[in-house]
Each structure stands twice: as structure tokens, then as C-alpha cells.
Amino acid sequence: MKTILITGASGAIGRPLVLALAQRRVRLRAVGRSIQSRDFPSKVDYVNTDLAEPERLVPELEKADTLFVHPRAVGASAADLMILAAKHGVRRIVALSTLDVEEDPALQPSRSLGDLNREVEQAVMGSGLPWVCVRASPYARPVVDLLASQARVGAVVGVPYPSFAEAPVHERDLTEVIARTLLDDKLEERVIEVTGPAAMTHQELAEVIAEVAGRRPLRFEEMSPATAVNQLVANGLSRAFAEGLMARCARELGRPATVTDEVHQLTGHPAHTFATWVADNAGQLHLLG
């Protein structure tokens, strides 16, 4: 029976990934910083450790066939972790990354959150082990939170860069794709780009949010980047990330968004729409009631 080691197991992708794989015939070992026994089924073994010191993971690597690498969990330790993985018997690596990984690192907003996607990809591809890199479309959540907070209370919603477009992926689809790559050893030396089913502008995102919230008709007007940054910071994001996000919108304005069919190809079902994502997360977005 295959043994899969999951880093970043207590995060927004890692946790549902572990829960999805727990339904399959595999052994699971979850690595995080604050996992508790109640977080996962009893069949899941877990360890809390700091991957800034990857040698601490050696006992887990010795038991694993396949390793999932989350860039924020692994950070600057990626190269050392890959050396240890190869040395201690891991036979295959799957890494999470992002569509903008080939951009100048200084222009990648998520680096301010610790996502060293380029370094992780380089380490994984250079490990000498069979690998797959799953590149996800940038998550729309920060902008969605910004739009939803306005749709809940006002008649006017300010939209930064209304014509900026991307194809946000539902985390459920991303989790399913990663699970498939971890389970299917035939998928090797592949970069898999995972997106939502269609490109949507910020204006269209706002309209969907208003529809789900039952707040239509609302009036939409363009929000200045500076105001958007301040509101994103007020919502709890770092200023560096908020400024990087708005800079990316400005830089890519008018550029066609990447849209792929990988979700359908690898899971057998079409990618979930943004409207489905909003409905699934309406409670967290405080759009109900």
C-alpha cells in the first residue's frame, strides 16, 4: 500500500487534501505546525514540526513513497528537503505551485506570504526523482472578500480594475487534481496548469457575488488601487501583499487569462464555476441572513 506524506497539512489546501485521500486505500502521514488529533480520521498519522529544519522530517521520509510539497510550508528549505527525500527512499514528488511562477519573483504577490514557488519548483525538478508540479491559477479570495464586504452593506460596490480577468479555481477542484497526481504514478515530469472553467473580470465577479447575496441590483463603480490596498489591509492582509496584488492587476490588464481543461481531464468532471464557489462559501463571506 502506498504511503503519502503531506506537508502543509493544516492549511486551506493541505487539510482537505488529507481528508480526500483518507477515503482512498493509502497510508497517510500529515505534517503541519498545529495539527490536533480531532483534525483528521484516526487512520491518518500526523506530526507537528518546523520544516525550517528539514532533517526533523527524516523519520517520516523513511516511511513515505510519495511526498506532497506545499511551497508555503517548505519555504527556503525546499532544496535541502529534496536531498533528504531522495536519500531516504521517497520515490516521487508532487508540488503545488502557481501560474505566475515564471514571472520575476519580485512581481509575485504571494511571495510576501512565504510562497517561494520558483525555488520549490526548481528543487523538485532537480531532485532526480519523478515529479509533477501543479500550477494553480491565483486565488481570487482577497478580491472576493473586498467585493463581498461591500455587497453585504451598501448599494454601491467599488471594483478595482473592473476589466482585469482571471479564471479562479475552486479549491475543491484543485484538491482533487492534486489527489489524482499523488495517486497516479503514470503522471510524471508534468507541469499541470489548473484553472477555473472560464475567465471572469473583477466586474463579473462582483455581479456574481451580488446575485448570490440577493443584493441585485447594485451599482458598481471603479475603485482606485490605493483605496483597494487600504481596504485589503483593513481586511487583514499585509500591505506588501495588497500592493503586489494591485500591481499584478495593473501589469496584466488586457492580457488574456489562462484557462485550461485540466480539471475535467484529470477528475472526469468540469471545473466548478465561480458562482458555485461563492454559494459554497456564502457563510464564510457573510452573504447569508
TrEMBL record:
<protein>
    <submittedName>
        <fullName>Uncharacterized protein YbjT (DUF2867 family)</fullName>
    </submittedName>
</protein>
<dbReference type="InterPro" id="IPR051604">
    <property type="entry name" value="Ergot_Alk_Oxidoreductase"/>
</dbReference>
<feature type="domain" description="NAD(P)-binding">
    <location>
        <begin position="8"/>
        <end position="182"/>
    </location>
</feature>
<dbReference type="InterPro" id="IPR016040">
    <property type="entry name" value="NAD(P)-bd_dom"/>
</dbReference>
<dbReference type="Pfam" id="PF13460">
    <property type="entry name" value="NAD_binding_10"/>
</dbReference>
<dbReference type="InterPro" id="IPR036291">
    <property type="entry name" value="NAD(P)-bd_dom_sf"/>
</dbReference>
